[in-house]
Design brief:
The protein has about 250 residues and is mostly helical. Helix content is about 45%, strand content about 10%. It is elongated and about 65 Å long. Bound molecules: zinc ion (2 copies).
Length: about 250
């Protein structure tokens, strides 16, 4: 049998699965049954839907070294790993009475979901100078993996010289929607424009130097927040495609 080395690439990164898993538990009142036989609901399916998993990734079997082991879906195994990691991080715990099948947010887990949601909302609605949608408060206990990559993106988008060169070249008009602070609020607000970094993190080498014209684009804070609604971010073209859609 040929081993498929692209196997992992079909799943989202673990921190994304964990983040989504915490959100699902929070939305369902802080506690979930892994499978709810009464309604047919399953956490595996819910997460697969929310993370847009391909059919192939959903149905792939785990290739087990031990032939006597019951065959299982690779996706379910992956989610179980995430659950275990959240458990050892102290963010969720098994139900003490009903055991394995029920998972509940701990106080720490609850806090971290609330921080996450608040942070997202705040960064989306405030237009504070240099507030970036992917900014993560330094005291956030969880999502460490995610925070690290977000900080990395921040660094390029924050670099004041690169930012200035990008703006000198492209101007202060949002590359996605055309919004211009100066036209609406006057020059007092013109520096509220953000710059967005286009390159995928996977393409960035360690001693990477940002190219302000090739890699950065001016975007307004609203479009910037939308670009970062997904990780990796949506492309400029994708967000332009969302514009002016009837709700
Ligand atoms: Zn915009
Ligand atoms: Zn950005």
């Amino acid at each position: 049998m040929v081993k498929d080395t692209n196997f992992q690439s079909r799943f989202p990164q673990r921190f994304q699965i964990k983040e989504e898993l915490l959100c699902v538990i929070a939305e369902r009142g802080g506690s979930i049954k892994i499978q709810d036989r009464a309604t047919g609901w399953s956490i595996y399916e819910e997460l697969a839907n929310r993370l847009n998993l391909s059919d192939e990734a959903r149905t792939r079997m785990r290739d087990s070294k031990k032939p006597e082991k019951k065959p299982e879906l690779a996706w379910e195994n992956e989610v179980r790993w995430c659950r275990t990691e959240l458990g050892s991080a102290g963010l969720i715990e098994k139900d003490k009475v009903n055991g394995q099948g029920i998972w509940t947010l701990t106080n720490l887990g609850r806090e971290s979901v609330e921080n996450k949601i608040e942070n997202k909302i705040e960064n989306t609605i405030t237009n504070q100078k240099f507030s970036f949608p992917e900014e993560v408060p330094p005291d956030t206990v969880s999502f460490h993996e995610g925070s690290v990559t977000r900080v990395l993106v921040n660094r390029y988008e924050r670099n004041p010289i690169a930012r200035q060169q990008c703006i000198n070249y492209y101007g202060k008009k949002c590359f996605v929607c055309g919004f211009e602070f100066a036209r609406v609020y006057g020059t007092v607000a013109e520096d509220l424009i953000h710059v967005h970094h286009l390159k995928a993190l996977s393409e960035i080498a360690e001693e990477y130097e940002v190219d302000p014209i090739a890699d950065l684009r001016p975007v307004c804070p609203n479009c910037h927040a939308v670009l970062h609604l997904r990780f990796p971010p949506y492309s400029i073209e994708e967000v332009q495609g969302f514009l002016h859609q009837e709700p």
